[in-house]
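Q: Could you fold this chain for me?
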Amino acid sequence: MVIEKLEVENIIEIKQIRGCLQLRPELLTIFDMLCKTANLALNTEAKKVDNTEPVIEDYIEPDLMSDSDDEDSISIQSTRL
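A: Sure. Below is the predicted structure, expressed as structure tokens.
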């Protein structure tokens, strides 16, 4: 399932609109119904696009093996004088 990122600007705009509509309760009710309908439509559309559940990967240990074989490595030996 695809989940859209929630934008803070959208939340602020909705709160501002609701604040402006406080003096008109009938319009506030219609706006709330509109928001619920839009939310339902977006969620339904997202389910139609992708019916799979989100995949949460288990923690995977990184491969710490060297990219080169021991035979190909250059060995530096210290020599004492």
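A (continued): Helices lie at 8-20, 25-49.
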